[in-house]
Specification:
MetI-like fold, mainly alpha, 10 helices
Length: 286
């Protein structure tokens, strides 16, 4: 009985197709990759073009939708001459002061509360119902009560914004604490670390990405509440400027104020993302 020798199949020549090759083994054509920044830039340009076209064709009355040129002209006038007894820079500074003061207060209260919820069952039982009670309530609902208790000065405005920021900071901190690896905590304790050292050197650094995410959400909530807070006996601020312009149908100032708030919020978001990359470069890579 003869045994036939095994011979390897010759490789296909250039230009020929291997009939036994599987479809997923063939090289796929390269796809054009569109970056997120390019997609964002295209979206902004499309919206700006639609706005310009709607105003140029007078699809909407200029009273309700002023043209980009009119908004830019009003921006120059308000920046130079002011609106309602204050320049644009003074309105921006007043609003930034209220937002940042409220953010600091929310951090000083929200981070410890979030730690207590994430670490202790008693803390979760005490603070979790309070946060769940405050979180769905809109700021305009408790604004009159705060005015009755604290008056119409700056503390009441800052307090309203801080309450709106508190829940995102506290809940994000609690979520970050619950997500800390148990092995890290046990390793620190096995090396003789105290409870305070574990919280400082293990839990807080591990929860920092979630805390920074909570700050980003809190800033959005703070800017949303700013307009409501500046309804009460304010003389300066972007929200006050928008409300004053709306009362007299000065729509170009209203649109300008909205765009200024959006630009400032975008800049703060960009800064926080850069801080996150510096402080927690390992976030999302574990």
């Amino acid at each position: 009985m003869s045994v036939s020798t095994y011979s390897e199949r010759p490789a296909p020549k250039a230009g020929e197709t291997d009939g036994l090759s599987v479809p997923w083994s063939r090289p796929r054509p390269k796809r054009t990759v569109v970056s997120a920044r390019l997609a964002s830039a295209i979206t902004i340009l499309v919206l700006f073009a639609a706005w310009t076209a709607a105003s140029s064709l007078q699809l909407v009355s200029p009273v309700f939708l002023p043209s980009p040129a009119a908004v830019w002209a009003k921006f120059d006038v308000v920046a130079r001459d002011g609106f309602v007894d204050a320049t644009l820079v003074q309105h921006i500074v007043a609003s930034l002061w209220r937002v940042f003061a409220a953010l600091i207060a929310a951090i000083l209260v929200g981070v410890p509360v979030g730690l207590a919820i994430g670490i202790s069952r008693i803390g979760r039982g005490v603070f979790d119902p309070l946060l769940e009670f405050l979180r769905p309530i809109p700021p305009l609902a408790y604004l009159p009560l705060i005015i009755i208790w604290f008056g119409i000065g700056e503390p009441s405005k800052i307090l309203v914004i801080a309450i709106a920021m508190l829940a995102p900071v506290a809940l994000s901190t609690a979520a970050g604490v619950r997500g800390v690896s148990r092995e890290r905590v046990d390793a620190a304790r096995s090396l003789g670390a105290t409870r305070a050292q574990v919280i400082r050197h293990v839990i807080l650094p591990s929860a920092l990405p979630s805390i920074l995410t909570g700050l980003r959400i809190a800033l959005g909530a703070g800017w949303s509440t700013l307009v409501a807070a500046e309804l009460v006996a304010a003389t300066r601020g972007l929200g006050f400027m928008i409300q004053s312009a709306a009362q007299f149908l000065v729509t170009d100032v209203v649109v300008m104020g909205i765009l200024v708030i959006a630009i400032i919020a975008f800049a703060l978001e960009f800064v926080i993302r850069r801080i996150e990359r510096v402080l927690v470069p390992w976030a999302g890579r574990e």
